[in-house]
Amino acid sequence: MELAARDDRIYLLVGDLGFGVVEPFIQKFPDRFLNMGVAEQNMTGVAAGIALTGKTVFTYSIANFPILRCLEQIRNDVCYHKANVKIVSVGGGFSYGALGMSHHATEDLAILRALPEMTVIAPGDPFEAQAATRAAAEYDGPCYLRLGRAGEPLVHASKVNFRIGQAIRVREGDALTLISTGAMLRTAVDVADALAAKRISVRVLSMHTLKPLDTDAVLAAAQETRAIVTIEEHSISGGLGGAVAECLAESGELRVPFKRLGIPAGFSAPPGTQEYLRDLCGLSQNSILRSLEPLLEAVHVS
Amino acid sequence: MICRAKSSHIGSVFSTVDILAVLYDKILRVDPAQPDWPDRDRFILSKGHACAGLYAALAERGFFPATWLEEFFANGGRLAGHATHWGVPGVEASTGSLGHGLSLGAGMALAGKRDGLSYRVFVMLSDGECDEGSTWEAALFAPHHGIENLVAIVDYNKIQSFGRVDDVLGLSPFAAKWESFGWGVCEIDGHDHPQIELALSQIPLMRGKPTCVIANTVKGKGVSFMEDKVLWHYRCPDAEERRLAFAELEGK
Description:
The complex is a heterodimer of chains A (302) and B (252).
Chain A: H1 2-6, E1 10-14, H2 23-28, E2 33-35, H3 40-51, E3 56-62, H4 71-79, E4 85-90, H5 108-113, E5 119-121, H6 126-138, E6 143-147, E7 168-171, E8 176-180, H7 185-197, E9 202-206, E10 209-211, H8 215-224, E11 228-235, H9 240-251, E12 258-263, H10 274-280, H11 285-298
Chain B: H1 2-5, H2 10-27, E1 42-45, H3 51-61, H4 101-114, E2 121-126, H5 133-144, E3 150-156, E4 159-160, E5 163-164, H6 165-168, H7 174-181, E6 184-189, H8 193-200, E7 211-216, H9 239-251
Parallel strand pairs in B: 1-2, 2-3, 3-7, 6-7
Antiparallel strand pairs in B: 4-5
């Protein structure tokens, strides 16, 4: 709202979703709002067309709808044209867990990370989300913004110094680095705090930008701490864990023990709350603590 | 250009060139000296595989030197085998995957309308492209928002990639489909220059509605052995065929 009031080039297109959320925008800026109906391919193509006349266009829907159904429109119409389109998906990961497989956005980061020109952002808490939205609006080019479902726990105490492509160091430590993306940040910090209580000092990085990856922060972690673990509410293939693994492998920093925590291969079949499904995938605080034990022993800090 | 490139789609090009000639000669308000002029008319070749004709029209209109046409299909050349805008003045949008152009055009037209600009957006579709669901998403969208500065021109040559439209996925009653979606529709002979010019001079055809011009065309038009043949979606003429084609085209 605040961004649209300041910049009259901002348009908002929604895929027949946003009940109870976007009404104030519609009332205030009716000429810059379109409910595109249940037609994500057209939504994305129209967004690119509008953007090519010099506008900044946000597309908005939930889970996989604004990305997978219209992936080719994103690749050809948005990315190839460097169109100033910001794709916003609410309900990243298992936010809509009980709604079932169709509503689990669990491969989005890997898929969009592969697209040329695309910037991929998954903020870690509401403060980051607010700052990321502003940063995406100000950035000239295609962006994907993966949000939670509102009501995510706060991690930061106040507004953050947010820059696209620059990880935020949330906890300082030298035994281990936890790198998290998206809303797993709260859990990562809780894990770090639990280990701190056992006198194990853990660095936590909020890797809110998957692409471009903050390789400096990854390499510093490899040099300054004794192990690296990535945590994401996403398939372990190709997302944060994949990006960090690529960075480490190419840098020659392979001596640092490394582990990816995320959703194992395969679909998560049963429905359930976000908390339930995270636990099922080993992403609750307790299961993460358990899976870190062998690693901590190996690096002699337990 | 196509023979030098050893490229395909010559039949698809010949079914569109009369429309392109009229568009770039008589209809489009464009200025080759200012290809980014904000109030210019836009043309999108949604059937991007027929781009040889578009590149030739742009060169003819002065957007870039005709020598660029020698780079069509060439390693490292400027002109790719499906319409590309990268470094090519006058190409408004890159296409090649069918079913993208009408949405892009609808977005450009809507933004122009809301900005109070007077430009129009012309999008040329193939008939095969009307198999794509996304084409019909855009066809629903544009009338709903009264985007009357948008024109869809369908190159209705009745042959698609692997057969006749009627055999692959029938479109008839074609005009009635567009009408029922809320478009102002007219049907013309897509090789008759006065008819093309008349239809494209009356935009919008119906007030408050986008316009759909169904251009009845012949794939491979102008070269007797190419006309109405699926083969010429793929085949590149050899030297003898090239000689015969030129003789026929120049004789007309």
